[in-house]
Design a protein that fits this description.
There is one protein chain. With 558 residues, this protein is α/β, with parallel strands linked by helices. It contains 19 helices and 25 strands. Strands 1, 2, 3, 4, 5, 6, 14, 15, 16, 17, 18 and 19 form a twelve-stranded mixed beta sheet that branches. It has a four-stranded mixed beta sheet with strand order 20-22-23-21. Helix 4 packs across helix 17, helix 7 runs antiparallel to helix 10 and helix 13 packs across helix 14. It is globular.
Length: 558
């Protein structure tokens, strides 16, 4: 009999009323804002009341570079949270919300899989509690106010050639990457070149995920730079008096969403910045609240450790004062074989040598996590076709590197299949061996920060950029932004900027084609290679398979 699909498993879940889940955490019913019976937002008053409580242990789940073979990072994050609860620990899972773009495109949802899922799965992967719509609305309100200000006389002296605030939509739509706005005559404003990013790449999304509270949120919104004058002086959101209205639109979105796993354990699902074009972590508010309510908090960072984990450490932890206690690096035999040169069509055949070749990618990620002085253990996310010889090869390879690889069967068995990893992670997190430190100091010049990431994390031989990019970085340093961390935007499929270069390449060139200042979020984005901040749909988008059945159930969502 074929195994049940993720959505079939999720639909059969025996969910508990969300008030019961809140009660497990000591959240009174009046401090939850319910969205139906199975999800709720936690009030700002309750979150504020947690101040003064001691923090639990923070565990990061990251992964090797993603491949079409699948890695299961979110699945392992959810499974580990369930596993820790199974062995008697008080644990909360913290993950990101899903973007509609990948759901209807290629990547799929972000609620885990098999018997390690967060539910309600359909809601989480569709509109959920409306957070992304609120972020899109707030972002586009500001865009409208920029053009409106120019139309009504341009008292701030905006140079229409230097408007940097683009619009957003939560969908993969390559036709919107570059557009011409304001056509149709005098009544429609001044024609200019503009464009769209996907909502998860919005600075508003990043701010929501890094803000401490609503006051900090509005302050950061006000700091965002939307355009420049002819003398190159910046114009901010606050100059346009848009920050207050934007905060109003985001007053509910900033509140963390409480849901549950298939095993009725609590999970916070909040925020959703992409890790290949943003910082790729769930909200600081959700993570910090969870740390006050649990002994262990399991959270994830997007894509491979070269992107997600580096940004988790260098941006989220740096900015929020978080100190991770342990890290889990997820790998699959199938993905290692692909990194070892095996085509997707040939993955079913045993190939120990390809696994060992692919382990070079795994080793690079282990070494990178250790650079931050955080102990790391490898989770081998089990697939049914994995052979004992292949699994033993990974275990031996990792042991030779001074770490440990543990086979995990949570996809098929739920928390029962991840007990061994749960015990080991609990030991690591409470061992006191973590001594977290970022990769670089705040005072390092911006270009040197980019080079540090490229050389130490990606093992690039050279970083290139035009004189315009370097001059822009120098101007930002002169304006007082030199102490900001760097957010590298590049392909998630490789340590390099070339998505076809798998394994652990060295000596490659990292081309920085553009830099963007996210003054409100508090980082500088370096866009590398051909990465796009507005993805496109594949030749056969997932949307073609998604529909309602005769009973009104969603089909085709994964």
């Amino acid at each position: 009999m074929a195994p049940k699909s993720d959505i079939e498993i999720a639909r059969a879940a025996q969910k508990r009323p969300i008030m019961e889940i809140g009660d497990k955490l000591g959240i009174p019913p009046e401090q939850l804002i319910p969205f139906g019976h199975d999800k709720a937002k936690v009030t700002a008053d309750f979150i504020a009341s947690l101040e003064g409580r001691p923090d639990g242990k923070l565990i990061l789940v990251t992964a090797i570079n993603p491949t079409p073979a699948g890695e299961g990072k979110t699945t392992t994050t959810v499974g580990l949270g369930d596993g820790l609860n199974r062995i008697g620990k008080r644990a909360i899972t913290c993950i990101r919300e899903a973007s509609l773009g990948p759901n209807f495109g290629l990547k799929g949802g972000a609620a885990g899989g098999g018997y390690a899922q967060v539910v309600p799965m359909e809601d989480m992967n569709l509109h959920f509690t409306g957070d992304f719509h609120a972020i899109s609305a707030a972002h586009n309100l500001l865009a409208a106010m920029v053009d409106n200000h120019v139309y009504w006389g341009n008292a701030l002296g905006i140079d229409v050639r230097r408007i940097v605030w683009r619009r957003v939509v939560d969908m993969n739509d390559r036709a919107l990457r570059t557009i011409t706005a304001g056509l149709g005559g005098v009544a429609n404003g001044y024609p200019r070149e503009a464009g769209f990013d996907i909502t998860v790449a919005s600075e508003v999304m990043a701010i929501l995920c890094l803000a401490r509270d609503i006051e900090d949120l509005q302050k950061r919104l006000g700091d965002m730079i939307v355009a420049y004058r002819r003398d190159r002086s910046p114009i901010t959101c606050r100059d346009l008096k848009a920050d207050g209205a934007m905060a109003v639109l985001l007053k509910d979105a900033i509140l963390p969403n409480l849901v549950q796993t298939l095993e009725n354990n609590p999970a916070f699902v909040h925020g959703g910045p992409f890790a290949n074009i943003a910082h790729g972590c769930n909200s600081v508010i959700a993570t910090r609240a969870a740390l006050k309510m649990a002994d262990f908090v399991v959270t994830e960072a997007g894509f491979g450790a070269d992107l997600g984990a580096e940004k988790f450490f260098d941006i989220k932890c740096r900015k929020a004062g978080l100190r991770p206690d342990a890290a889990v690096l997820v790998a699959t035999v199938r993905a290692l074989k692909m990194n070892g040169g095996v085509a997707k069509a040939d993955l079913a055949a045993e190939n120990v040598q390809a696994v060992l070749r692919g382990c070079a990618n795994l080793k690079r990620h282990i070494d990178n996590v250790r650079r931050f002085n955080v102990p790391v253990v490898v989770a081998i996310n089990h697939f049914m076709g994995d052979t004992e010889a292949e699994i033993e090869a990974v275990e031996a390879y990792v042991a030779a590197e001074g770490s440990e690889a543990i086979i995990c069967r949570h996809w098929a068995e739920g928390s029962a299949g991840i007990e061994a990893l749960s015990h080991r992670v609990a030991e690591l997190a409470t061992s006191g061996t973590a001594d977290f430190s970022p990769l670089y100091c705040d005072e390092l010049p911006l270009w040197q920060k980019i080079e540090t990431i490229a050389h130490r994390i990606y093992h690039a031989g050279e970083v290139t950029a035009s004189s315009a990019v370097r001059d822009q970085l120098a101007q930002w340093e002169a304006a007082g932004y030199g102490n900001l961390p760097i957010c590298i935007a590049k392909t998630q499929y490789s340590f390099s900027a070339d998505p076809t270069l798998r394994g652990a390449p060295t000596g490659h060139v990292l081309p920085v084609r553009e830099v963007r200042l996210s003054a409100g979020a508090g980082f500088v984005v370096a866009i590398c290679g051909d990465i796009m901040t507005m993805p496109g749909l594949p030749i056969t988008p997932a949307a073609e398979r998604i529909r309602l059945d005769a009973k009104g159930h969603v089909e085709g969502l994964f």
